[in-house]
Structures are given as structure tokens and as C-alpha cells.
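[#protein-structures] MJ: dropping Argininosuccinate synthase here for a structure pass
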Amino acid sequence: MEKEKVVLAYSGGLDTSIIIPWLKENYDNLDIIACCVNVGQEDDMEFVKNKALSSGASKVYIQNVVNEFVEEYVYKGIKANAVYEGKYLLGTAYARPLIAKKLVEVAHKEGAKYIAHGCTGKGNDQVRIETAIASLDPFIKIIAPWRIWDISSREDAIDYAEAKGIDLNGITKKRIYSRDQNILHISHEGGMLENPANEPDFDELLMMTNTVEKAPDKAEYVDIEFKEGIPVKLNGEKLNGEDMLKALNKVGGTHGIGVIDLLENRLVGMKSRGIYETPGGTLLIEAHKYLESFVLEKEAAHFKETISSKYAELVYNAMWFSGLKDAFDAFIDITQKNVTGTVKLKLYKGTIKFAGMTSKYALYNESISSFSTGDLYDQKDATGFIHLYSLPYKIQALNEMNNSKNGSTEVVYTFKE
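AK: finished. C-alpha cells for Argininosuccinate synthase:
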């Protein structure tokens, strides 16, 4: 009898490495196909492939989607200025719907009825992965070992891996941080970070970014050019999404840019603490915000701030494949038609300073905004504007004055002919 097939979201890390032998023990009727979606995690993919095969997978897919991840997912968030709870640039949340999409594609190609993943039962990613899968193919069934096996901690997972002879690639019970990396960011959770009273040991934690103390003592300038909200050139050189983010990660990481310590409200109802490194993404979103302030009309800019916040919540909360996100994208794309120009940033020891910008669509006009009188703005015109603008406040004051004098709530106005 031919076995049913399961596609396993495989990274080669602790959680997914132990899932292969566990599936073989508990689902002997399943043929395990590992699928590693490369979104820029800088792993040795040949090592990952061989590890999956040696652990019991019958076949391994390595999907390189780094540029697609940047241009079709990350850049949408940059255009939206999406930042969750004022700090988090959503590095993990952008990657999950793309990973789910690739898992479904492999499942269709292989005729697999099941998809398995290594997301824990306490995390957001289980919701993101499974909601995305359901949005793309509601008939695929999910196997989520962390919700059903007896392994209850990363220490238990390490013991299980050692018992099965699985290469832990440097993971120990002392260095037990849970990390997620892609080209946009790397997150660090677990270990000593679980106690909010502990100050992070950044010398031990950081992998993409220098500590502020180790950052250069000399500032560096970067020029980022945008076209309709999309970054297209760095210091005059045209780059695709992958190369743009790699280059900005390097320069931003050198200067200690984009490290946050976040106590966040998870989708699943609890608070969690994580250290996030997002050097290149931080540079992009700050440059984009500056440029928008230069070219967007006032009401569009103010309303977009509301959309930005809701967009971040939507992405964080597993709604990538939703009608609401499509509607937001349509609005955001319209706002980006004039977000074209170049922004200069000054980087120094973890800080980003504005250093100038240019755009042919600038709504800032020096002849109007300066203290000098220009042809386009007559300062005398402000008198009539102020009379009209202040009218409701004058009426309010008159009401209060009449009420206090007469002790009456009825106000009688007398108009001169």
C-alpha cells in the first residue's frame, strides 16, 4: 500500500530536526518530504538537505525565495510604514505567509494531504502558517507536533535529539535561545530573556549587528533612492530587493542600527519578550517616512498613519491573505505614486539622523515656507483665514460669557441689519 505524504516545513533547527524521527515513530504510514524555504537565513543549505535525509526524510526541497520575500512582502510593509506596537518591523510575520505558500505548492506537486510544522503551541507562527495554508488550500490537513507530543520544553527537545543522534549544530542547554533569521531580521527569545528583570547580554546575543560600544567612532552617510515607495538605488547604485537589504544590513549592522528589546502582546493572548535585530529594514523605513513627509499632502499623510498601525496589526495577526489587506494595499499604492526621491541618512552608534532629501514631487516650497514674503503666499491673507478658523471658539466663549452673566442657559443673539 502506497504511503500518504506529509510536507514538513524544515529549517534544520532544533524543533524541525526532531520532528522527522518523531513523525516516523508516530505516523508509520506517512512519507516525509522536507521543504526548506530560504528567506535569507544564511544557513548552509547543503548541510540542511543532508541533515533532513539522514534524519529520515525521503525527499528534500530547497526553495530559494529571498528576492521574492523582499520585493513582494517586505517592501509592502515598507510602503505601509508598518511597525507593530511602535517597535517591531515584523520580520517573522512577513516570512510565514510566503513559507506557507511554498509548502502548499510542494504539497500540490507531490500530492500530499498533510503539512507539518515545528511551531510551538504558545507562539504566533502556528496561527500564521495554518491560516495562510487554509487561505490557499482549505483541504490540506495540519500536523502540529508541539501541540500533541510529550516534549514540553527546549531542554526536552535537546534530550530527544541527542537520543536520536541528531546534530544540534552548537545548540546546548546553556545556549538555548530560540532564534529566527531571515534577510530582514533575526529574533532572539528564551533563555535569560524570559525574565524581564534581566538585562540582555548583547555581546552574546547579537549576530547581525554591532553593539553600540563596538560601532565605529566615525559617522557614515547613505543615500537611498525610492521610486513610488520602493527603494531602487543605494548610493547611486541600482539594486534588486535582495541586494539592497544585504547591503543595508551590512552598513546598518556595522553602526549598531535597529536593535530593540520588545515586550510584545502576542496574537495568542500572552506577553513575550524578544530581542530583534533589523538593521537594513530600520534604515529603509526611516528613509521612507522622511520622504513621505516631503511629498504627501497633509490629510493623506495623517490618515496613512492610522492605516500604518492597522496594517502592522493585520500582518502580525496572520491576515496576509485577507480582503482587508488587499484593500489596504490598494490605498497604500495610490499614496506611493509620488513617493519618489532620494533621502540621505547619517549613521552613528545606533542612531539615524536625517541629512537631506530631494524629490521632484516635493510639496515643501522654500519660497512659501520661509520667513520671507514670496509671490505664492501673501501673509495678509492669514487674517481672514484666522477669523474663519477661530469662529466656533469665539461663539463658545460668547456663550460662556452670557451664561455666567445672566445665569441662563438660553442665549439670544442680536444681529445688526
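MJ: nice. The two ends are 100 Å apart (CA to CA).
AK: one more thing. The first helix runs from residue 14 to 26.
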